[in-house]
Amino acid sequence: MIMIYVIAAAFVVLAVVFLMGKGDKLIAGYNTASEEERKEVNIHRLRILMAIMMVITAGFCILLTFIGKDKNNAMAATFIFMMITIVFVIIANTWAKKK
User: Fold this and answer.
1) DSSP alpha helices (H): ranges in the chain?
2) Are the CB atoms for 40 and 94 separated by under 8 Å?
3) Structure pTM?
4) pLDDT of the chain along its 99 residues, tens only?
5) What does the alpha-carbon distance between residue 59 and residue 91 come to, in Å, rounded to a whole number?
């Protein structure tokens, strides 16, 4: 259980790093994109989305420590987390793009 709290804390630290304007190389897809592709991305918005997602992931890790013994609740929470992740991927590919 301590390990889960350490992982959750790492996600919170990553959220702070993104909000400070650092950590662009930690964003999957952005770090491997060409310079032309990077110019199409609003990195400020993408950092905000990544920070929010890191906090949600930390909360999910902590939530699972409390409901992990009840498999139905854990599965429901995992399903909700997956839906949130899909929504964030869609937002990252629309709202975080420069027009």
Assistant:
1) 2-19, 35-39, 43-67, 71-94
2) no
3) 0.88
4) 899 999 999 999 999 999 999 999 999 889 899 999 999 999 999 999 999 999 999 999 999 998 978 889 999 999 999 999 999 999 999 999 986
5) 20
